[in-house]
Design goal:
The chain is α/β, with parallel strands linked by helices. It contains six helices and six strands; from the N terminus they run H-E-E-E-H-H-E-E-E-H-H-H. 52% of the residues lie in helices and 17% in strands. It has a six-stranded mixed beta sheet with strand order 1-2-3-4-5-6.
């Protein structure tokens, strides 16, 4: 399994920024670089900065041991420093300097062999902060590549295609209901609606409904009047008997 994938699992993006090939300064002032820099986001964990050096061969590791001062340019800014062996057995535990931690790729897992002790870093220099920001910017720009844009377009097309299929199903259902309603109207009214008389039929139905509504109100008023007359007559009869 890819070592960087394992590191990303150890340092998830919601909690850390994992940057590769970070130099100790920006521009021509840089003299050294770290294979990886991890910046923690949570104040409760100290917002620690961790340095990472990857080793893929025994010779590479032995060269590191011969010149430990090489790491000092970035090591001094870090809260923790890690040696990560990408192959089992190329780094021996007893060889790891006491201020350094040691992780090793074992099968498909990243195993901590020696925890990295908490260090006492010097205050960050502006040049190193700028270098980290440049790597972060490069990482963001790298995510917005032609291939990634094409992938997003393809994904959007597929999602749109699925939505279109669902919309087409709903449209067919609604069209079927509309045809059914039209058939019932034509059957009961005896009127055949087509593309030329649809508007006239609609106007006629509207006027008919208005007339029905008006007639209904007239009948209601007539009933109210008759009810009052009957009530008055009964009241008058009762008064005469008394």
């Amino acid at each position: 399994m890819n070592t960087w994938k394992l590191l990303k699992e150890r340092y998830p993006a919601k909690e850390y920024a994992l940057l590769s090939e970070v130099r100790n300064a920006a521009g021509y002032n840089a003299s050294r670089s770290a294979d990886g820099i991890v910046v923690g986001f949570w104040p409760s964990r100290g917002c620690e900065i961790e340095g990472i050096e990857l080793k893929s061969g025994r010779g590479d590791w032995l060269n590191e041991l011969k010149n430990p001062a090489k790491a000092e340019a970035i090591f001094k800014f870090c809260d923790r420093w890690w040696i990560v062996a990408e192959v089992t057995g190329i780094v021996k535990l007893e060889e790891v300097p006491s201020p350094w931690g040691f992780m090793e790729v074992v099968g498909e897992k990243l195993k901590v062999i020696k925890p990295a002790p908490k260090l006492e870093p010097v205050p960050l220099k502006k040049e190193f902060v700028v270098s980290m920001l440049k790597r972060m910017q490069s990482k963001i720009e790298g995510m917005i590549t032609k291939d990634s844009i094409s992938a997003e377009i393809l994904k959007a097309r597929e999602e749109g295609k699925g939505l279109a299929i669902r919309d087409d199903g709903w449209a067919k259902r609604d069209l079927g209901n509309l045809r059914k309603s039209l058939e019932e109207f034509e059957l009961k009214s005896g009127i055949k609606i087509n593309e030329w008389n649809g508007g006239n039929c609609g106007s006629a139905v509207k006027k008919l409904m208005q007339m029905f509504d008006l007639d209904y109100r007239r009948q209601l008023l007539r009933l109210q009047k008759q009810s009052k007359e009957i009530y008055d007559s009964i009241t008058e009869v009762i008064s005469l008997k008394e």
